Amino acid sequence: ARRGTSDIKAILSEDPTDSEYLTDNHVDRAMLTWSDSVCDTVDDGRCSVLTQALYRDRTEPEFLQTVHEIMVSTESLLMENPKYFDVFQRMIEPERVITFRVPWVDDNGRTHVNRGFRVQMSSTLGPYKGGLRFHPTVNLSILKFLAFEQLFKNALTGVSLGAGKGGADFDPKGKSDTEVMRFCQSFMTELCKHIGPGVDVPAGDIGVGGREIGYLYGQYKRLTGRFEGALTGKGPTWGGSHIRPEATGYGAVYFSEHMMRGAGHVKGLEGMRAAISGSGNVAQFAAEKLLDLGATPMTFSDSGGTLYCETGFTRDHLALIQDLKNNKRGRLSAIADVPEFTYLPESTPWGMSCDVAFPCATQNELKAEDAQNLVANGCMAVVEGANMPTTPEAYQCLKESGVLFGPAKAANAGGVGVSGLEMAQNSGGLSWTREEVDSQLKDMMKNIYDETSAAALRVGQPNDLRTGADVAAFLRVADAMIDQGCV
User: Fold this and answer.
1) Active site residue 267
2) Active-site annotation holder among 165, 289, 325, 409
3) Quick one: how many helices (H) and strands (E) in the chain?
4) pLDDT per residue over 158-197, tens digit each?
5) CA distances (Å), 135 to each of 113, 171, 279, 431, 458, in order?
6) In angstroms, rounded to a whole number, what is the distance separating the alpha carbons of residues 180 and 114?
7) What are the beta bridge partners of residue 296?
8) Measured in Å, how far apart are the chain's first and last C-alpha atoms?
């Protein structure tokens, strides 16, 4: 009997509102598909427990999406080893979720209240580690999805890092520096009770760059009286690491270079045209490293539209975009009048002809129609610079079309990897050179590529790097959880 499938159907039928919500988000169909294949292979008790766990999170589509991906990738392990099925039930439940109010006063004296979060997902492999996101879309589902992704990403780095994620539904855009400072100080006043070296070490994410990390760390130091490695992404003159701002973008390009060479492209990325989404740190430094390796970045984007350069962006163009985004905090439309640029409002980069695509903006930005356009325009590879930027339907289209795919867990692990190196430098009171950190980042991304490739081969899915990344990371976390007992 298909106990899991019938359980899910029964649960959904109890509340039509829930059923409609899940159907709209394509979650129930994914779970039913998984249940059909897996629940026949385990006893009713185990499948029923997992079904109930998923039901608890039925209004969290982003979280269920990433859980389903891991389920599918590790299906053979779950079927062959009941111990892994048991540990998976614990793995999908955060160790701790903290929610708190964040009151702050704007420049006109008005009081605002935002909601702050910290999801401490797992300390199995080390202290909780993951970024803080300030964006109006932040909610518990998104942060649990990011924390769960972080668990697997951190495991692949080989550094002793657990997983967490946090943030608030606060939008730094349009705020003055003093307003952002007041918000960060209020946010840290509560968060400082739950973080610290060896416990939880947050970093930046969307909406949290060097400015915000500075304000957050200043308040942490003020409240605790300690100068210590409680945050990463700090300035290099006050405990930060060289290459940390660049690490996610650089790492994605290093990973893609290995991926292309592994697929037989002996020149790697040299001579290739790259479509990039986003225009923040990841996109900027991915473009910088692409230029270093002889590739040509063709696009950037933000929520207003896409900036395209037919001849490819140069280093001077990149400096212009960095100044606009990092200093003036402006929109790409503000430089649409540069003669070499074409600005396409309310569009994405995925309709452009390219050899490699780097989605570096946000989750679920690359949809099925976008994937079809990329395939039609000759794209050979998609490398995820953002967290889970490719929808399940888009991924399926890319896979069926033979497009190489660099999954976020592996491709964008460079950021957290260098955060781990920053923690090591803080612990030893050291400051490594830019060259030393970059060399370690290169080695880390090569090791991640090699490990994901080997894991894909192990489960009979050669060249399926998404499955390989999921399996390699799952085994590292699951085996450690088994060793540490039922906690």
Assistant:
1) no
2) 165
3) 19, 13
4) 999 999 999 999 999 999 999 999 999 999 999 999 999 9
5) 14, 5, 16, 32, 40
6) 13
7) 273
8) 31
